[in-house]
Design brief:
InterPro entries: MFS, MFS_dom, MFS_trans_sf, Sugar_transporter_CS. It is found in: Membrane. One of its GO terms (cellular component) is plasma membrane. This protein is mostly helical. The protein has a single domain (about 10-400), classed as MFS general substrate transporter like domains (Growth Hormone, Chain: A), CATH 1.20.1250.20. It has helices at about 10-25, 35-40, 50-70, 75-95, 100-125, 130-160, 165-185, 200-210, 210-240, 245-275, 275-300, 305-330, 340-365, 370-400.
């Protein structure tokens, strides 16, 4: 019998890297999108689909892989996903057309999603009821990747062309596989032989979604991340194409904006045990909504500028850094017996918001920054409205029962 896996710094660092892999895969290549379109003779803007299909595969895969890990264990699902990731990333390097590149990118998203959902489920397995601060730390790892990767991606494109960021993602994934082989043993000690079966899966998700608090957290996460993704996906065309920054200048600008995500996550890590997840989500979604609406107002009143676009987005990312870890903690911690299921659905909600945002951004794209700032403000305001509406309804229902 294997010994029980206990909390350790090495394990936490590994889980932070697993959580970061999806963002590394996206943020590194964003500065290379224009070069990829040129090399593959694709029409301008077509590379946005590569972002959207990754996000869609990343989100949908978690609905299945999370529950499967409740049944089969975290370890086999984790390593199968990482193997798919490595093969897909290698295919991206060898792609000769945009269709081929996008197909490989979808498989890369499917592989990367196993890393995120397994990391969150493993945190719940190992840290148990005290998982809140550890979950926040894993999110900090992801956010560090968001901060560093755009600038690194821009530098790599300048040095080695469009393939250099993809090669870097391949090397990072290989290092993660080696670390997981060394430091991770199976953490799910209560396998459910029925988990992952279609009828049980549907019943479990239906039961999970009966909880109004879970619904509020999932929807808030979806729309908050959708607000941020509108800027993540659209910023390259705006900063480079309209504001005439170089790829490296763009990477540094985006890195400075999203650095506030780490501040929000650090606040969560230090205060979640005292304030609770709901309070931190409330603070975070309010900051994000204010910053996003301010971005839209400045754009409409003063026009497009680097400072006018960037400064209010710091509030959006600061709030997002609170919402991401706190909403996941609030959803996963009460569901110890189905941590993979809960983590998978929250990952799906996060990616569903990003996919919806990305599809709308592609459809509304008109060569200006309007679609990006409008979607950013709309999604953030919807997140704020839904969270407070559903929380008020939950409190009213609790009072009625009393």
């Amino acid at each position: 019998m294997h010994s029980v896996l206990t909390p350790s710094r090495k394990l936490l660092v590994l889980l932070m890297a697993l959580t970061a892999l999806g963002e590394i895969s996206t943020q590194l290549i964003i500065p290379a999108l224009s070069a990829i379109e040129w090399v593959m003779a694709a029409k301008p803007g077509s590379s946005l689909l590569a972002l959207s299909v990754f996000v869609a595969a990343f989100g949908l895969g978690q609905l299945v892989l999370g529950p499967l890990s409740d049944r089969l264990g975290r370890r086999p699902i984790l390593f199968a996903g990482l193997l798919v990731y490595l093969c897909a990333t290698l295919w991206m390097l060898l792609a000769n057309s945009m269709v081929e590149f996008i197909t490989a990118r979808a498989l890369q998203g499917l592989g990367a999603c196993s890393a995120l959902v397994m990391a969150r489920a493993i945190v719940r397995d190992v840290w148990q009821a005290e998982a809140g601060p550890a979950l926040a730390m894993t999110v900090i790892g992801m956010l560090c990747a968001i901060v560093v990767s755009p600038a690194l991606g821009g530098l790599l494109v300048r040095i080695g062309g469009w393939q250099a960021p993809i090669l870097m993602a391949l090397l990072v994934a290989g290092a993660i596989v080696l670390a997981a082989l060394c430091f991770y043993r199976e953490s799910n000690r209560q396998l459910d032989p029925q988990a992952g079966r279609l009828t049980k899966l549907v019943a479990n998700y239906a039961d999970l979604l009966k909880d109004s608090s879970f619904r509020a957290l999932a929807l808030t996460l979806a729309f908050t991340y959708g607000a941020m993704f509108a800027v993540i996906a659209g910023s390259s065309a705006v900063y480079i194409g309209l504001l005439h920054l170089s790829p490296s200048q763009y990477g540094m600008t985006i890195s400075a904006i999203v650095a506030a995500l780490i501040g929000g996550a650090l606040f969560t890590q230090r205060n979640i045990s005292r304030l609770g997840p709901d309070k931190i989500v409330s603070i975070g979604v309010s900051l994000a909504a204010f910053g996003a609406v301010a971005t839209l107002a400045i754009h409409q009143g003063l026009g497009l500028s680097v400072l006018g676009l960037s400064l209010p987005q710091v509030l959006v990312t600061l709030g997002g850094g609170m919402v991401l870890p706190a909403s996941v903690a609030g959803a996963v911690i009460p569901n110890a017996h189905r941590a993979g299921l809960a983590a998978g659905f929250m990952g799906f909600a996060q990616m569903a918001g990003a996919t919806f945002s990305g599809v709308l951004l592609t459809a509304l794209q008109d060569g200006s920054a309007w679609a990006m700032v409008f979607l950013n403000a709309s999604f953030a305001f919807i997140a704020w409205s839904l969270f407070h509406l559903l929380q008020r309804r939950r409190r009213a229902a609790e009072l009625a029962v009393q």
